[in-house]
């Protein structure tokens, strides 16, 4: 009865022209006032219980101000909404999983963040008014962003086709705050966008801006990303252009400049004799990890790796968390400086990976910036040593009918020493799984060799239906990673070059 009376009262108020706020509003968190161009307010928060509503407010001091708001959940999770209200609680506009763009008059406004799925999750909210001002087609005509410390976003376009955009900024005299030591500069937008970023730094000696770095496709899709260590009072300029051909122009993209903290390696470690020590991170001394930075003045880092017993050792580079894709070169040396193995691009990324059988002893790992296109390359170097079972190939195994039976238990590392001959351009191996198992097949050089040969790998099921195939994963070597259900399978190693004979290893491991 009480609910019926409340509903009737609401109907009467609406009929009388009284507008009620859609929801009760808690005291909003004040973000700030938009009184200058290129202003950005950002916050990281969380919806801590199902159905929670988070409120924020901001002021606008000019009529016809264009304001953008963007909220994002972890890993771009869907269902996060951004709703905009005026100071009386009247709904204005909303966006779900995309940027909200509105033109506002002078006043106070409120933003509500919620999840349409009532999901408990963290999120980030960015509200900004940065809009490119033409003409900014040269360094002298750049849009000036003033001092950069906190996150700055702006919306721009590359129109007409062939347009170039320039933006200038300066690091504050006291440097970056909150312990940050680097700047992230990146473009984002629709998947079809393809940009190049060129970064300039002002030279007091030459009294002009000089290019120091460029990047094409290190960002998401074909967008661009540059990182740099930021020094107090340094002046920079950023140039953005389209690189897709034919040039069609880009209607709208976002330029982000944000400060962040990166982990750096201890310098100097630029030679074998200066190598930093890789300290195990596992109780059995079989795993190592360290973060490092490369830049135009520090293009190589050396690390000393000690293996306690003979093992199959995997060494690889990857990004520091959320830092994108950069191009490294990884090399493994003996104590005397002889090269044991190296790798540039592994698989579908520009990071590097080496898998090699090593005797107990000390070795040296070098991480290099493969292409000097970025001002800063933040990387994470990891290594894992695992016990390995070695078996020789048994001929004949040139066809699936004569495939050699391999006894492999999931979780162990198995290394098969084999030879591709002129008369047998393929080797076939059969194995049986008793349960669903993730498995990796990888070809590589014979132990102690650095010579690369061009192999192919093909995986078949019991009915000889092809499940996977790979040619060049790492240089010319091949790799397949699959999760297979219980059953019988065949893995076939072939030579891409028909008149070539060589020794190789086939390694079977868990991922």
Topology, pairings included?
Blueprint: H1 2-15, E1 29-34, E2 40-47, E3 54-60, E4 65-72, E5 80-86, E6 91-96, E7 100-104, E8 107-115, E9 121-128, E10 130-131, E11 143-147, E12 152-158, E13 164-170, E14 182-189, E15 195-203, E16 208-215, E17 225-229, E18 235-242, E19 250-260, E20 276-277, E21 287-295, E22 300-307, E23 311-319, E24 328-333, E25 339-343, E26 353-358, E27 361-369, E28 376-386, E29 388-392, E30 404-405, E31 413-420, E32 426-433, E33 437-445, E34 455-461, E35 466-470, E36 479-484, E37 487-495, E38 502-509
Parallel strand pairs: 1-3, 10-12, 11-13, 20-22, 29-31, 30-32
Antiparallel strand pairs: 2-9, 3-8, 4-7, 4-9, 5-6, 5-8, 12-19, 13-18, 14-17, 14-19, 15-16, 15-18, 21-28, 22-27, 23-26, 23-28, 24-25, 24-27, 31-38, 32-37, 33-36, 33-38, 34-35, 34-37
């Amino acid at each position: 009865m009480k609910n019926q009376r409340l509903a009737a009262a609401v109907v009467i108020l609406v009929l009388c022209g009284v507008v009620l706020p859609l929801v009760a509003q808690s005291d909003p968190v004040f973000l700030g006032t938009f009184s200058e161009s290129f202003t950005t307010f950002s916050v990281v928060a969380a919806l801590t219980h199902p159905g929670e509503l988070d409120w924020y407010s901001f002021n606008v001091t000019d009529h016809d101000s264009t304001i953008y708001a963007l909220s994002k959940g972890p890993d771009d999770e869907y269902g996060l909404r951004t709703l905009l209200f005026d100071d009386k609680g009247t709904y204005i506009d909303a966006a779900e999983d995309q940027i909200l763009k509105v033109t506002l008059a002078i006043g106070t406004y409120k933003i509500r963040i919620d999840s349409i799925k009532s999901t408990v999750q963290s999120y980030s909210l960015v509200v900004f008014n940065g809009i490119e001002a033409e003409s900014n087609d040269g360094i002298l005509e750049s849009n000036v962003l003033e001092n950069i410390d906190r996150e700055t976003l702006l919306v721009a376009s590359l129109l007409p086709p062939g347009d170039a955009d320039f933006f200038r900024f300066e690091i504050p005299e006291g440097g970056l705050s909150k312990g940050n030591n680097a700047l992230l500069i990146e473009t984002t937008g629709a998947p079809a966008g393809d940009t190049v970023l060129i970064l300039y730094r002002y030279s007091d000696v030459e009294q002009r801006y000089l290019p120091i770095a460029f990047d094409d496709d290190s960002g998401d899709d074909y967008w661009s990303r540059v990182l740099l260590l930021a020094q107090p009072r340094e002046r920079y300029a950023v140039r953005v252009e389209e690189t897709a051909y034919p040039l069609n122009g880009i209607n709208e993209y976002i330029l982000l400049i944000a400060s962040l903290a990166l982990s750096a390696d201890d310098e100097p470690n630029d030679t074998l004799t200066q190598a930093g020590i890789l300290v195990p991170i596992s109780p059995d001394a079989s795993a190592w990890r360290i973060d490092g930075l490369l830049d135009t003045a520090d293009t190589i880092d050396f690390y000393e790796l000690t293996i306690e017993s003979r093992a199959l050792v995997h060494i690889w580079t990857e990004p520091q968390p959320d830092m994108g894709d950069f191009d490294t070169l990884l090399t493994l040396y003996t104590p005397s400086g002889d090269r044991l193995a190296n790798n540039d691009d592994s698989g579908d990324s520009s990071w590097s990976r080496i898998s090699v059988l090593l005797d107990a002893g000390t070795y040296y790992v070098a991480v290099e910036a493969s292409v000097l296109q970025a001002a800063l390359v933040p990387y994470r170097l990891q290594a894992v040593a695992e016990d390995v079972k070695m078996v020789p190939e048994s001929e004949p195994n040139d066809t699936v009918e004569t495939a050699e039976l391999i006894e492999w238990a999931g979780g162990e590392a198995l290394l098969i020493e084999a030879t591709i001959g002129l008369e047998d351009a393929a080797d076939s191996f059969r194995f049986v799984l008793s349960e669903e198992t993730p498995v990796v097949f990888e070809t590589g050089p014979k132990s102690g060799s650095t010579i690369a040969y061009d192999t192919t790998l093909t995986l078949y099921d019991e009915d000889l239906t092809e499940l996977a195939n790979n040619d060049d994963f790492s240089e010319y070597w091949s790799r397949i990673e699959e999760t297979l259900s219980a059953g019988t399978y065949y893995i076939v190693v072939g030579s891409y070059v028909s008149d070539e004979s060589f020794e190789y290893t086939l390694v079977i491991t868990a991922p």
